[in-house]
Amino acid sequence: MPGLLLDTLKGKRQDKVPMWLMRQAGRYLPEYRALRAEKGGFLDLVYDSEAAAEITLQPIRRFGFDGAILFSDILIVPHAMGQGLAFLAGEGPKLSPPLIDAALDSFTAAPERFEPIYETVRLCRAQLSQDVTMLGFAGSPWTVATYMVAGEGSRDHHATRLFAYRDPAAFQAIVDAIVDVSITYLRGQIDAGAEAVQLFDSWAGSLAPDEFERWVIAPNAAIASALKSSHPHVPVIGFPKGAGAKLPAYARETGVDALGLDETLDPAWAARELPAGMPVQGNFDPLLLESGSERLEQRACEILDTLADRPHVFNLGHGIGQFTPIAHVERLIEVVRNYGQ
After folding, report:
1. Which residues are known catalytic residues?
2. pLDDT at 1 over 60
3. Which of 18, 106, 174, 223 is positioned for an S-S bond with 4, CB 3.0–4.6 A?
């Protein structure tokens, strides 16, 4: 039987609001820190299916969330495309060689790197109760491309944006390649047991409107369309962080089933401007959760009230911070679970 979260993502508005948190499996949990200390580096954990499954399940055991989000990383796609990937302590991910200096066709594809991820999904689905939804994910092409071109993260994605303006044909080829590999990757996750998938476009907000149409909307529409053709009953959640006023166009044109809202959006505006009946997810501020401010309960109820007329998944506006106290998460869960009672 479908769980509360899966039903909501499929468009059913319910009195009880399902809940999960982006990055719910991670560094704020003492059990995660203990396992990482035992196992080693981040990438080692991602490719260790049993360890990654354990990490995925940790927040379900502790908090009873309605969804389990695969423990992995958006940069597994460029790694499988043949780009070198390393996570350096204190520096974040590094990809080599960066596409600002190298051609995509110089890479040797390594699709076998997806296999441990699929096994993680299989292990999780086998251990989860039927009422907990298994969520897969991939990075959206624009966000993945920003790392592949620059070789690392950046504040304003200057190198990638400049590359796209100077040589749009070459950049289009990169985006198209990411689209194709992401479709394969997400289909593999679904076949392994993922019941819904999310497209993370963390850096969508850095683009001008016409560039947003080309590099965010069009690639995500291609992925959503392909997944609908092969797996029509699996909801696709789109999360273009920072899209702002461009969000309604994204909702109409990409074909995603549900939409993630970041913390900068007014939920009243979203309720008014987004397609009627479209499920939404978010948009509680992760920093408010970390702070444990007295406004925590008030803001959570405001979001729940404002989005009560459409299918709503309670979530954060982005990932939970590593310094977030467990007690603050427990407070938020209590508010959401007791809402309306």
Report:
1. 23, 27, 36, 73, 147
2. no
3. 18
Q: Encode pLDDT of 128-144 as tens digits.
A: 999 999 999 999 999 99
- In angstroms, the CA 260 to CA 283 distance is 8
Whole-number pLDDT of residue 2: 73
Tokens of 129: 């109760």
For residue 21 the two structure tokens come to 């948190």
Query: Residue 263: CA atoms inside 13 Å, Cβ hemisphere, count?
Result: 15
Cα-based distances in Å from 271 to 150, 193, 221, 243, 311: 36, 32, 22, 15, 11
Per-domain residue ranges of the chain: 4-264
Q: For residue 277, name the pLDDT band (cuts at 50, 70, 90).
A: very high
CATH architecture of 4-264: Alpha-Beta Barrel (3.20)
Q: Which amino acid is at 60?
A: I
CA distance 173 to 226: 18
Burial profile 55-64: b = 16 or more Cβ within 10 angstroms, e = fewer? bbbbbbeebe
